[in-house]
Amino acid sequence: MTPFTYARAASVPDALQRAAIAGTKFLGGGTNLVDLMRETVERPTALVDVSGLGAAIVESDDGGLHIAAAARNTAIAEHRAVRERYPMLSRAILAGASAQIRNMATLGGNLLQRTRCTYFFDDEGSRCNKRTPGQGCDAIGGFNRNHAILGASEACIATHPSDMAVALAALDAVVHVSGIGGERMLSINELHRLPGDRPDVETELAPGKLITGVDLPAGSLYARSTYRKVRDRSSYAFALVSVAAALEVSGGVVRDVRIALGGVAPKPWRAWKAEMALRGGPASEEAFLAAIDAELRDAKPLSHNGFKIELARRMVVAVLNELSGVAA
Amino acid sequence: MRFIVNGQAVDVECDVRTSLLDLLRDHLHLSGTKKGCNQGACGACTVLVEGDRINSCLAFAVQYEGREITTIEGLGTATALHPLQRAFVEHDGFQCGYCTPGQICSAVGMLNELGRGVPSHVTPILTEQQCALTHDELRERMSGNLCRCGGYNGIVEAIAEFHAEAP
To answer: Which of A192, A212, A281, A326 matches a 20 to 30 Å C-alpha distance to A115?
Structure first.
Protein backbone atom coordinates (compact mmCIF):
# COMPACT_ATOMS: atom_id res chain seq x y z
CA MET A 1 0.00 0.00 0.00
CA THR A 2 1.27 3.48 -0.88
CA PRO A 3 2.02 5.62 2.20
CA PHE A 4 -0.51 8.28 3.13
CA THR A 5 -1.33 10.70 5.92
CA TYR A 6 -4.50 10.44 7.96
CA ALA A 7 -6.57 13.15 9.62
CA ARG A 8 -10.00 13.26 11.18
CA ALA A 9 -12.12 16.15 9.92
CA ALA A 10 -13.43 18.29 12.76
CA SER A 11 -16.12 19.91 10.62
CA VAL A 12 -17.21 20.24 6.99
CA PRO A 13 -15.10 23.40 6.43
CA ASP A 14 -12.11 21.62 8.00
CA ALA A 15 -12.64 18.62 5.69
CA LEU A 16 -12.88 20.87 2.62
CA GLN A 17 -9.76 22.77 3.56
CA ARG A 18 -7.76 19.58 4.03
CA ALA A 19 -9.05 18.17 0.74
CA ALA A 20 -7.75 21.16 -1.22
CA ILE A 21 -4.40 19.37 -1.49
CA ALA A 22 -4.15 17.17 -4.60
CA GLY A 23 -4.09 13.44 -3.89
CA THR A 24 -6.44 13.70 -0.91
CA LYS A 25 -9.43 11.41 -0.57
CA PHE A 26 -12.32 11.45 1.87
CA LEU A 27 -12.71 8.30 3.96
CA GLY A 28 -16.12 7.08 5.14
CA GLY A 29 -16.44 3.57 6.55
CA GLY A 30 -13.57 2.38 4.37
CA THR A 31 -15.25 -0.82 3.24
CA ASN A 32 -14.42 -0.17 -0.41
CA LEU A 33 -11.53 2.31 -0.27
CA VAL A 34 -9.37 0.28 2.14
CA ASP A 35 -9.71 -2.72 -0.16
CA LEU A 36 -8.87 -0.70 -3.28
CA MET A 37 -5.83 0.84 -1.58
CA ARG A 38 -4.58 -2.61 -0.61
CA GLU A 39 -4.89 -3.66 -4.27
CA THR A 40 -3.10 -0.40 -5.27
CA VAL A 41 -6.03 0.53 -7.52
CA GLU A 42 -6.41 3.64 -5.33
CA ARG A 43 -3.27 5.47 -4.22
CA PRO A 44 -4.29 8.56 -2.22
CA THR A 45 -1.48 10.46 -0.52
CA ALA A 46 -3.79 11.78 2.21
CA LEU A 47 -7.01 10.53 3.79
CA VAL A 48 -9.47 12.84 5.51
CA ASP A 49 -11.81 10.80 7.68
CA VAL A 50 -15.31 12.29 7.42
CA SER A 51 -17.09 9.41 9.17
CA GLY A 52 -17.32 11.46 12.38
CA LEU A 53 -19.24 14.30 10.71
CA GLY A 54 -23.04 14.54 10.57
CA ALA A 55 -24.93 11.25 10.71
CA ALA A 56 -28.40 12.41 11.74
CA ILE A 57 -31.67 11.36 10.08
CA VAL A 58 -34.22 14.13 10.59
CA GLU A 59 -37.59 15.32 9.28
CA SER A 60 -37.30 18.09 6.68
CA ASP A 61 -39.48 21.19 6.77
CA ASP A 62 -41.30 20.07 3.61
CA GLY A 63 -42.33 16.72 5.10
CA GLY A 64 -39.48 14.72 3.59
CA LEU A 65 -36.47 13.26 5.34
CA HIS A 66 -32.85 14.45 5.45
CA ILE A 67 -30.11 11.87 5.91
CA ALA A 68 -26.65 13.16 6.72
CA ALA A 69 -23.79 11.58 4.77
CA ALA A 70 -22.04 9.82 7.65
CA ALA A 71 -25.18 7.85 8.58
CA ARG A 72 -24.30 4.15 8.53
CA ASN A 73 -26.25 1.84 6.23
CA THR A 74 -27.70 -0.05 9.22
CA ALA A 75 -28.85 3.18 10.86
CA ILE A 76 -30.75 4.20 7.71
CA ALA A 77 -32.28 0.76 7.13
CA GLU A 78 -33.52 0.44 10.72
CA HIS A 79 -34.83 4.00 11.03
CA ARG A 80 -38.55 4.00 11.77
CA ALA A 81 -39.47 6.72 9.23
CA VAL A 82 -37.48 5.00 6.47
CA ARG A 83 -39.17 1.65 7.16
CA GLU A 84 -42.65 3.19 7.20
CA ARG A 85 -42.43 5.81 4.46
CA TYR A 86 -39.62 4.62 2.15
CA PRO A 87 -39.61 0.80 2.44
CA MET A 88 -37.75 0.40 -0.86
CA LEU A 89 -34.78 2.23 0.64
CA SER A 90 -34.72 0.07 3.75
CA ARG A 91 -35.12 -3.09 1.64
CA ALA A 92 -32.40 -2.02 -0.83
CA ILE A 93 -29.90 -1.45 1.97
CA LEU A 94 -30.74 -4.75 3.64
CA ALA A 95 -30.27 -6.56 0.31
CA GLY A 96 -26.70 -5.25 0.05
CA ALA A 97 -23.42 -6.54 1.49
CA SER A 98 -23.34 -8.21 4.94
CA ALA A 99 -24.47 -6.97 8.34
CA GLN A 100 -20.84 -6.25 9.30
CA ILE A 101 -20.29 -4.10 6.22
CA ARG A 102 -23.64 -2.32 6.65
CA ASN A 103 -22.54 -1.37 10.18
CA MET A 104 -19.39 0.27 8.78
CA ALA A 105 -20.48 1.77 5.45
CA THR A 106 -21.75 5.36 5.19
CA LEU A 107 -24.31 6.96 2.90
CA GLY A 108 -21.72 9.22 1.25
CA GLY A 109 -19.28 6.38 0.73
CA ASN A 110 -21.99 4.14 -0.65
CA LEU A 111 -22.81 6.65 -3.41
CA LEU A 112 -19.16 7.03 -4.37
CA GLN A 113 -18.08 3.39 -4.16
CA ARG A 114 -16.32 1.99 -7.22
CA THR A 115 -17.44 -0.81 -9.52
CA ARG A 116 -16.72 -4.42 -8.56
CA CYS A 117 -15.72 -5.29 -12.17
CA THR A 118 -12.95 -7.84 -11.55
CA TYR A 119 -10.84 -6.38 -14.35
CA PHE A 120 -10.90 -3.01 -12.60
CA PHE A 121 -9.58 -4.64 -9.40
CA ASP A 122 -6.88 -6.62 -11.23
CA ASP A 123 -4.23 -3.90 -11.20
CA GLU A 124 -1.39 -6.16 -12.33
CA GLY A 125 -3.08 -8.47 -14.82
CA SER A 126 -5.83 -6.66 -16.75
CA ARG A 127 -6.33 -3.63 -18.92
CA CYS A 128 -8.94 -1.18 -17.65
CA ASN A 129 -9.87 2.26 -18.98
CA LYS A 130 -11.42 3.21 -15.68
CA ARG A 131 -8.22 2.50 -13.76
CA THR A 132 -5.77 3.63 -16.43
CA PRO A 133 -7.46 5.86 -19.06
CA GLY A 134 -6.69 4.82 -22.66
CA GLN A 135 -5.36 1.42 -21.68
CA GLY A 136 -8.21 -0.65 -23.14
CA CYS A 137 -10.86 -2.89 -21.56
CA ASP A 138 -10.38 -6.59 -20.98
CA ALA A 139 -13.97 -7.03 -19.77
CA ILE A 140 -15.50 -6.36 -23.20
CA GLY A 141 -14.07 -9.53 -24.74
CA GLY A 142 -13.79 -11.30 -21.40
CA PHE A 143 -16.05 -12.75 -18.74
CA ASN A 144 -18.75 -10.07 -18.81
CA ARG A 145 -21.68 -11.92 -17.27
CA ASN A 146 -22.04 -9.28 -14.52
CA HIS A 147 -21.66 -6.28 -16.79
CA ALA A 148 -23.92 -3.58 -18.23
CA ILE A 149 -26.68 -3.90 -20.84
CA LEU A 150 -27.64 -0.21 -20.71
CA GLY A 151 -25.56 2.98 -20.84
CA ALA A 152 -22.19 1.30 -21.44
CA SER A 153 -19.62 2.49 -23.98
CA GLU A 154 -16.80 1.06 -26.07
CA ALA A 155 -14.46 2.15 -23.29
CA CYS A 156 -16.27 0.62 -20.30
CA ILE A 157 -19.06 -1.84 -19.54
CA ALA A 158 -18.78 -1.87 -15.72
CA THR A 159 -21.90 -1.64 -13.54
CA HIS A 160 -22.51 0.54 -10.50
CA PRO A 161 -22.57 -1.83 -7.51
CA SER A 162 -24.81 -0.02 -5.01
CA ASP A 163 -28.25 -1.27 -3.99
CA MET A 164 -29.01 1.78 -1.85
CA ALA A 165 -28.37 4.15 -4.76
CA VAL A 166 -30.96 2.34 -6.91
CA ALA A 167 -33.67 3.10 -4.35
CA LEU A 168 -32.39 6.68 -4.02
CA ALA A 169 -32.58 7.04 -7.82
CA ALA A 170 -36.21 5.89 -7.80
CA LEU A 171 -36.84 8.35 -4.95
CA ASP A 172 -35.28 11.29 -6.83
CA ALA A 173 -33.15 11.94 -3.76
CA VAL A 174 -31.44 15.32 -3.75
CA VAL A 175 -27.74 15.20 -2.96
CA HIS A 176 -26.14 18.02 -0.95
CA VAL A 177 -22.59 18.78 -2.04
CA SER A 178 -20.23 21.15 -0.23
CA GLY A 179 -17.18 22.85 -1.68
CA ILE A 180 -14.91 25.72 -0.73
CA GLY A 181 -17.16 28.00 -2.81
CA GLY A 182 -20.39 26.96 -1.09
CA GLU A 183 -23.09 24.33 -1.24
CA ARG A 184 -24.99 22.98 -4.24
CA MET A 185 -27.74 20.44 -4.64
CA LEU A 186 -28.34 18.03 -7.48
CA SER A 187 -30.59 15.07 -8.14
CA ILE A 188 -28.96 11.72 -7.56
CA ASN A 189 -29.92 10.99 -11.16
CA GLU A 190 -27.49 13.74 -12.21
CA LEU A 191 -24.72 12.70 -9.81
CA HIS A 192 -23.31 9.70 -11.68
CA ARG A 193 -22.06 10.00 -15.27
CA LEU A 194 -22.25 7.46 -18.06
CA PRO A 195 -18.75 6.33 -19.07
CA GLY A 196 -18.52 7.57 -22.66
CA ASP A 197 -14.81 7.86 -23.45
CA ARG A 198 -13.92 8.88 -19.85
CA PRO A 199 -14.98 5.99 -17.59
CA ASP A 200 -12.47 7.18 -14.99
CA VAL A 201 -14.69 10.24 -14.33
CA GLU A 202 -17.65 8.67 -12.57
CA THR A 203 -19.56 11.59 -11.08
CA GLU A 204 -20.23 15.29 -11.57
CA LEU A 205 -18.32 16.06 -8.36
CA ALA A 206 -15.16 18.09 -8.88
CA PRO A 207 -12.13 17.04 -6.79
CA GLY A 208 -12.40 18.25 -3.20
CA LYS A 209 -16.22 18.34 -3.15
CA LEU A 210 -17.91 16.57 -0.26
CA ILE A 211 -21.35 14.95 -0.14
CA THR A 212 -22.92 16.05 3.14
CA GLY A 213 -26.35 14.43 2.90
CA VAL A 214 -29.42 13.59 0.84
CA ASP A 215 -33.04 14.73 0.95
CA LEU A 216 -35.85 12.25 0.44
CA PRO A 217 -39.03 13.76 -1.00
CA ALA A 218 -42.30 14.13 0.89
CA GLY A 219 -45.35 12.26 -0.36
CA SER A 220 -47.36 9.11 0.20
CA LEU A 221 -46.30 7.45 -3.09
CA TYR A 222 -43.19 5.87 -1.61
CA ALA A 223 -44.96 4.10 1.24
CA ARG A 224 -46.08 1.57 -1.38
CA SER A 225 -42.68 0.66 -2.69
CA THR A 226 -40.28 -2.24 -2.63
CA TYR A 227 -36.91 -3.51 -3.81
CA ARG A 228 -36.27 -6.86 -5.42
CA LYS A 229 -32.81 -8.26 -6.17
CA VAL A 230 -31.66 -11.36 -8.04
CA ARG A 231 -28.11 -12.57 -7.42
CA ASP A 232 -26.05 -15.73 -7.76
CA ARG A 233 -26.62 -16.75 -4.13
CA SER A 234 -29.46 -15.87 -1.81
CA SER A 235 -27.49 -13.44 0.35
CA TYR A 236 -24.30 -11.38 0.39
CA ALA A 237 -23.70 -10.97 -3.36
CA PHE A 238 -23.90 -8.12 -5.84
CA ALA A 239 -27.00 -7.83 -8.02
CA LEU A 240 -27.34 -9.46 -11.40
CA VAL A 241 -30.47 -7.35 -11.74
CA SER A 242 -32.37 -5.37 -9.11
CA VAL A 243 -35.53 -3.27 -9.23
CA ALA A 244 -36.68 -0.45 -6.95
CA ALA A 245 -40.24 0.65 -7.59
CA ALA A 246 -43.12 2.65 -6.14
CA LEU A 247 -46.62 2.52 -7.56
CA GLU A 248 -49.87 4.33 -6.92
CA VAL A 249 -52.99 2.90 -8.56
CA SER A 250 -56.57 4.04 -8.25
CA GLY A 251 -59.55 2.85 -10.26
CA GLY A 252 -57.26 0.52 -12.21
CA VAL A 253 -55.20 3.48 -13.49
CA VAL A 254 -51.54 4.17 -12.74
CA ARG A 255 -51.59 7.56 -11.00
CA ASP A 256 -47.87 7.66 -10.35
CA VAL A 257 -44.89 5.35 -10.61
CA ARG A 258 -41.12 5.26 -10.00
CA ILE A 259 -38.83 2.55 -11.32
CA ALA A 260 -35.03 2.23 -11.13
CA LEU A 261 -32.83 -0.72 -12.06
CA GLY A 262 -29.55 -1.92 -10.56
CA GLY A 263 -26.90 -4.29 -11.90
CA VAL A 264 -27.61 -3.34 -15.51
CA ALA A 265 -25.81 -0.03 -16.09
CA PRO A 266 -22.80 2.10 -15.10
CA LYS A 267 -25.11 4.15 -12.87
CA PRO A 268 -28.32 3.49 -10.97
CA TRP A 269 -30.68 3.31 -13.95
CA ARG A 270 -33.85 5.34 -13.66
CA ALA A 271 -36.42 3.82 -16.04
CA TRP A 272 -37.83 7.12 -17.31
CA LYS A 273 -39.26 5.60 -20.50
CA ALA A 274 -41.11 2.85 -18.65
CA GLU A 275 -42.53 5.36 -16.18
CA MET A 276 -43.74 7.62 -18.98
CA ALA A 277 -45.41 4.70 -20.72
CA LEU A 278 -47.24 3.72 -17.53
CA ARG A 279 -48.42 7.04 -16.10
CA GLY A 280 -52.14 7.55 -16.69
CA GLY A 281 -52.58 4.13 -18.33
CA PRO A 282 -54.05 0.86 -17.10
CA ALA A 283 -52.37 -0.99 -14.22
CA SER A 284 -52.29 -4.31 -16.06
CA GLU A 285 -49.64 -6.92 -16.68
CA GLU A 286 -49.78 -6.15 -20.44
CA ALA A 287 -49.09 -2.49 -19.73
CA PHE A 288 -46.24 -3.34 -17.33
CA LEU A 289 -44.66 -5.56 -19.98
CA ALA A 290 -45.02 -2.95 -22.72
CA ALA A 291 -43.48 -0.34 -20.43
CA ILE A 292 -40.36 -2.30 -19.52
CA ASP A 293 -39.98 -3.36 -23.16
CA ALA A 294 -39.92 0.34 -24.08
CA GLU A 295 -37.16 0.85 -21.50
CA LEU A 296 -35.12 -2.14 -22.65
CA ARG A 297 -35.37 -1.40 -26.37
CA ASP A 298 -31.90 0.20 -26.17
CA ALA A 299 -30.37 -2.68 -24.21
CA LYS A 300 -27.24 -4.16 -25.78
CA PRO A 301 -26.30 -7.64 -24.61
CA LEU A 302 -22.62 -8.62 -24.38
CA SER A 303 -21.28 -12.13 -25.00
CA HIS A 304 -22.24 -13.46 -21.53
CA ASN A 305 -24.96 -11.21 -20.09
CA GLY A 306 -27.89 -11.40 -22.54
CA PHE A 307 -29.95 -13.13 -19.83
CA LYS A 308 -30.17 -9.81 -17.96
CA ILE A 309 -32.65 -8.43 -20.51
CA GLU A 310 -35.22 -11.16 -19.92
CA LEU A 311 -34.48 -11.14 -16.19
CA ALA A 312 -35.08 -7.38 -15.94
CA ARG A 313 -38.37 -7.74 -17.90
CA ARG A 314 -39.69 -10.44 -15.61
CA MET A 315 -38.57 -8.71 -12.43
CA VAL A 316 -40.14 -5.35 -13.30
CA VAL A 317 -43.44 -7.01 -14.20
CA ALA A 318 -43.40 -9.10 -11.01
CA VAL A 319 -42.63 -6.10 -8.81
CA LEU A 320 -45.35 -3.94 -10.41
CA ASN A 321 -47.83 -6.82 -10.10
CA GLU A 322 -46.95 -7.12 -6.44
CA LEU A 323 -47.32 -3.39 -5.80
CA SER A 324 -50.61 -3.14 -7.71
CA GLY A 325 -52.02 -6.11 -5.83
CA VAL A 326 -52.50 -8.21 -8.99
CA ALA A 327 -50.34 -11.00 -7.61
CA ALA A 328 -48.28 -11.52 -4.50
CA MET B 1 -2.71 5.46 19.39
CA ARG B 2 -4.87 4.40 22.32
CA PHE B 3 -7.60 1.77 22.09
CA ILE B 4 -9.82 0.05 24.65
CA VAL B 5 -9.47 -3.63 23.81
CA ASN B 6 -11.47 -6.17 25.82
CA GLY B 7 -11.94 -3.59 28.55
CA GLN B 8 -8.28 -2.58 28.85
CA ALA B 9 -6.66 0.59 27.58
CA VAL B 10 -3.71 -0.15 25.30
CA ASP B 11 -1.26 2.24 23.66
CA VAL B 12 0.21 1.18 20.35
CA GLU B 13 2.56 2.81 17.90
CA CYS B 14 1.96 1.72 14.35
CA ASP B 15 1.90 2.87 10.74
CA VAL B 16 -1.45 4.36 9.65
CA ARG B 17 -1.60 1.66 6.96
CA THR B 18 -2.12 -0.99 9.65
CA SER B 19 -5.56 -2.58 9.49
CA LEU B 20 -7.52 -3.06 12.68
CA LEU B 21 -7.11 -6.80 12.11
CA ASP B 22 -3.31 -6.58 11.89
CA LEU B 23 -3.25 -4.33 14.94
CA LEU B 24 -5.08 -6.96 16.97
CA ARG B 25 -3.10 -9.94 15.68
CA ASP B 26 0.42 -8.63 15.10
CA HIS B 27 0.72 -5.75 17.57
CA LEU B 28 -1.50 -6.89 20.45
CA HIS B 29 -0.94 -10.64 19.83
CA LEU B 30 -4.66 -11.35 20.05
CA SER B 31 -4.56 -14.07 17.41
CA GLY B 32 -8.11 -15.31 18.07
CA THR B 33 -9.38 -12.92 15.41
CA LYS B 34 -8.59 -14.61 12.09
CA LYS B 35 -7.43 -13.36 8.70
CA GLY B 36 -9.38 -15.30 6.08
CA CYS B 37 -9.83 -13.39 2.82
CA ASN B 38 -8.57 -9.97 4.00
CA GLN B 39 -11.10 -8.35 1.67
CA GLY B 40 -14.39 -8.37 3.54
CA ALA B 41 -15.83 -11.50 1.95
CA CYS B 42 -15.57 -14.15 4.67
CA GLY B 43 -16.22 -12.61 8.10
CA ALA B 44 -13.41 -14.50 9.90
CA CYS B 45 -12.07 -11.15 11.16
CA THR B 46 -15.37 -10.03 12.75
CA VAL B 47 -14.96 -8.08 16.00
CA LEU B 48 -17.31 -5.87 18.02
CA VAL B 49 -16.95 -2.10 18.30
CA GLU B 50 -19.14 -0.88 21.14
CA GLY B 51 -21.40 -3.86 20.48
CA ASP B 52 -21.60 -3.49 16.69
CA ARG B 53 -20.02 -6.21 14.55
CA ILE B 54 -17.59 -5.08 11.85
CA ASN B 55 -14.97 -6.64 9.56
CA SER B 56 -11.64 -5.65 11.09
CA CYS B 57 -9.82 -6.32 7.79
CA LEU B 58 -11.70 -3.51 6.00
CA ALA B 59 -10.73 -0.86 8.53
CA PHE B 60 -7.56 1.04 9.29
CA ALA B 61 -6.83 0.78 13.01
CA VAL B 62 -6.50 4.56 13.19
CA GLN B 63 -10.20 4.92 12.29
CA TYR B 64 -11.05 3.25 15.59
CA GLU B 65 -8.65 5.13 17.83
CA GLY B 66 -10.23 5.68 21.26
CA ARG B 67 -13.01 3.15 20.63
CA GLU B 68 -13.98 0.05 22.63
CA ILE B 69 -13.17 -3.13 20.76
CA THR B 70 -14.17 -6.64 21.83
CA THR B 71 -12.52 -9.72 20.34
CA ILE B 72 -13.14 -13.40 21.00
CA GLU B 73 -10.57 -13.20 23.82
CA GLY B 74 -12.85 -10.67 25.53
CA LEU B 75 -15.93 -12.89 25.33
CA GLY B 76 -14.60 -16.07 26.93
CA THR B 77 -11.45 -17.89 28.00
CA ALA B 78 -10.32 -21.51 27.84
CA THR B 79 -11.38 -22.03 31.45
CA ALA B 80 -14.49 -19.85 31.38
CA LEU B 81 -16.22 -20.31 28.06
CA HIS B 82 -18.84 -17.85 26.88
CA PRO B 83 -22.20 -19.71 26.77
CA LEU B 84 -22.21 -19.30 23.01
CA GLN B 85 -18.79 -20.97 22.80
CA ARG B 86 -20.16 -23.85 24.87
CA ALA B 87 -23.15 -24.12 22.52
CA PHE B 88 -20.79 -24.29 19.52
CA VAL B 89 -18.94 -27.18 21.20
CA GLU B 90 -22.17 -29.01 22.06
CA HIS B 91 -23.64 -28.64 18.56
CA ASP B 92 -20.44 -29.31 16.58
CA GLY B 93 -20.61 -25.75 15.27
CA PHE B 94 -17.15 -26.09 13.72
CA GLN B 95 -14.71 -28.51 12.17
CA CYS B 96 -11.39 -26.76 11.54
CA GLY B 97 -12.40 -23.83 13.79
CA TYR B 98 -10.86 -21.09 11.69
CA CYS B 99 -14.12 -19.21 11.13
CA THR B 100 -15.38 -19.80 14.70
CA PRO B 101 -14.15 -16.66 16.50
CA GLY B 102 -15.68 -14.55 13.73
CA GLN B 103 -18.91 -16.57 13.81
CA ILE B 104 -19.21 -16.11 17.58
CA CYS B 105 -18.43 -12.37 17.61
CA SER B 106 -20.82 -11.96 14.67
CA ALA B 107 -23.59 -13.87 16.45
CA VAL B 108 -23.22 -11.68 19.55
CA GLY B 109 -23.50 -8.56 17.37
CA MET B 110 -26.39 -10.09 15.42
CA LEU B 111 -28.36 -10.68 18.61
CA ASN B 112 -27.74 -7.07 19.67
CA GLU B 113 -29.21 -5.96 16.32
CA LEU B 114 -32.18 -8.29 16.70
CA GLY B 115 -32.79 -6.97 20.21
CA ARG B 116 -33.08 -3.38 19.05
CA GLY B 117 -35.40 -4.36 16.19
CA VAL B 118 -33.12 -4.09 13.12
CA PRO B 119 -34.93 -5.81 10.23
CA SER B 120 -33.22 -8.08 7.68
CA HIS B 121 -33.55 -8.87 3.98
CA VAL B 122 -35.99 -11.71 4.78
CA THR B 123 -38.11 -9.86 7.35
CA PRO B 124 -41.65 -10.07 5.91
CA ILE B 125 -43.10 -6.93 7.51
CA LEU B 126 -40.63 -4.05 7.84
CA THR B 127 -42.73 -2.01 10.21
CA GLU B 128 -42.95 -4.60 12.97
CA GLN B 129 -40.92 -3.57 15.98
CA GLN B 130 -39.66 -7.01 16.93
CA CYS B 131 -38.65 -9.86 14.70
CA ALA B 132 -38.58 -13.54 15.68
CA LEU B 133 -35.29 -15.33 15.03
CA THR B 134 -36.64 -17.93 12.59
CA HIS B 135 -34.31 -20.32 10.75
CA ASP B 136 -34.38 -18.08 7.65
CA GLU B 137 -33.77 -14.93 9.71
CA LEU B 138 -30.82 -16.50 11.49
CA ARG B 139 -29.18 -17.71 8.27
CA GLU B 140 -29.72 -14.39 6.48
CA ARG B 141 -28.39 -12.36 9.40
CA MET B 142 -25.28 -14.57 9.61
CA SER B 143 -24.59 -14.57 5.85
CA GLY B 144 -21.52 -12.39 6.30
CA ASN B 145 -19.68 -15.32 7.93
CA LEU B 146 -18.57 -18.17 5.69
CA CYS B 147 -17.57 -21.64 6.91
CA ARG B 148 -15.55 -23.56 4.35
CA CYS B 149 -16.05 -26.79 6.30
CA GLY B 150 -19.79 -26.36 5.75
CA GLY B 151 -20.54 -26.49 9.46
CA TYR B 152 -23.63 -24.33 9.06
CA ASN B 153 -26.19 -26.71 10.56
CA GLY B 154 -24.29 -26.88 13.85
CA ILE B 155 -23.59 -23.15 13.80
CA VAL B 156 -27.28 -22.35 13.31
CA GLU B 157 -28.31 -24.81 16.06
CA ALA B 158 -25.77 -23.38 18.50
CA ILE B 159 -26.85 -19.77 17.95
CA ALA B 160 -30.56 -20.67 18.04
CA GLU B 161 -30.11 -22.55 21.33
CA PHE B 162 -28.08 -19.75 22.90
CA HIS B 163 -30.71 -17.22 21.84
CA ALA B 164 -33.58 -19.37 23.14
CA GLU B 165 -31.89 -19.85 26.50
CA ALA B 166 -30.63 -16.29 26.93
CA PRO B 167 -32.28 -14.48 29.84
So the answer is: A212
